[in-house]
Amino acid sequence: MWGPNGRFGYLPISNTKAYWYLLINAHPNDPLIAKYNVSDLIERLKNYPQPVTDIIELTENHHILKHDIYDIPAIDQYVFDHIALVGDAAHAMTPNLGQGACQGIEDAYILGLSLSRHPDHGLQEYEKKRLHRANTFVNMSRRVGAMAQLEYPFLCRIRNFMMKMTPQAAYRKQNQFIYDYRYEKRKALSRH
User: Fold this and answer.
1) How far apart are CA 90 and CA 151, in angstroms?
2) Structural domain boundaries of the chain?
3) Which residues contact 73 (CB under 8 A, 6 or more apart)?
4) What is the Cα–Cα distance from 166 to 156, expressed in whole angstroms?
5) Per residue of the chain (192 residues), what is the pLDDT tens digit?
6) How far out from the chain centre does Cα 171 lie?
7) Which secondary-structure segment (H or E) carries 35?
8) Is the pTM of the predicted complex or chain greater than 0.85?
């Protein structure tokens, strides 16, 4: 749930437990955020729809973990001589698309294939195959995060309206890129 006081999400883990998170705009190591407890969070999110405050209310203060989120800007090189960067070392991204670990797994898979097919230049092949796709996720995740973390109610209303007006075809195209690794290759081939 996106709103001016932060983004809230949750997943049931069992019949009696849920994992939840709240993303709040703040400075690194913000001392005010460090002091937040259940009551503070309920007050902050009191205007959000249920089950938000119900879930938070069931949480014990010592179970609340507070972490800053960091990413790195997209880089233009993953391979340095005989060293290849993979995963977060190559493309640390915000969790807005849920793609951080996924892209690390894709790195490992493509690196393994590239090295097994071309032992002498497999690292360069890996970089060539992964650089654009992984960096696209870094940049896309950053943009989605900026949009999702808007705090001004007027801008939130504009964002929400624009999301409602976005054609379903645009969402399908984005999902195809995210979930179909071969999408870029087919798209490139169709241009020739």
Assistant:
1) 30
2) 2-63, 79-191
3) 138
4) 15
5) 998 999 999 999 999 889 999 999 999 999 999 999 999 999 999 999 999 999 999 999 999 999 998 888 999 999 999 999 999 999 999 888 889 999 999 999 999 999 999 999 999 999 999 999 999 999 999 999 999 999 988 998 998 899 888 888 877 777 677 767 665 555 555 555
6) 16
7) none
8) no
Give me the torsion for CA of 151, 141, 92, 55, rounded to 10°: 60
Helices vs strands, H then E, count in the chain = 9, 5
- Tokens 């943009």 label which residue? 143
Phi, psi of 122 (to 5 degrees): -65, -35
Phi and psi of 9, rounded to 5°? Answer: -145, 155
- Cβ contact 76:103 at 8 Å: no
CA distances for 47 relative to 2, 18, 39, 51, 63, angstroms: 12, 21, 14, 11, 23
Q: Which two tokens stand for residue 154?
A: 């007027």
